[in-house]
Specification:
Layout (H helix, E strand, L loop, with lengths): L1 E3 L6 E3 H9 L6 H6 L3 E3 L4 E3 L5 E3 L12 H17 L3 H11 L2
Antiparallel strand pairs: 1-2, 3-4, 4-5
Helix pairs in contact: 3-4
Length: about 100
């Protein structure tokens, strides 16, 4: 399933990010990312707690002007992320169900 960046809505396959971006580059998914989130300037990814994508290579360090619908979708994804906590699979499923 895809997880979309909360800033620009770029979709990323979650297992690709976890396994090939983070783990293959020597980062510990559970200790370094899942607990508190982290900024990875070398990878151009920024994660919020529980691994939700706050910024990605498409928008990292850039100002993104979103239209009204995209901004509302980003707010909904953030609210779902807060409500579902560390249930990343549930978060992705809910986003897919709601078309976010």
């Amino acid at each position: 399933m895809d997880m979309k960046c909360m800033k620009c809505s770029e979709p990323y396959e979650w297992f690709y990010i976890r396994d090939e971006i983070l783990i293959d580059n020597g980062y510990d998914y559970y200790d370094e990312v899942k607990k508190d989130g982290k900024d990875f300037p070398d990878l151009q990814f920024k994660f919020k707690r529980n691994c939700y994508i706050a910024e990605c290579p498409a928008c990292y360090g850039k100002k993104i002007k979103q239209d009204e619908k995209s901004e509302a979708n980003s707010e909904m994804r953030e609210a779902l992320a807060d409500a579902l906590g560390d249930d990343v699979d549930g978060f992705m499923a809910e986003c897919e169900d709601f078309g976010l």
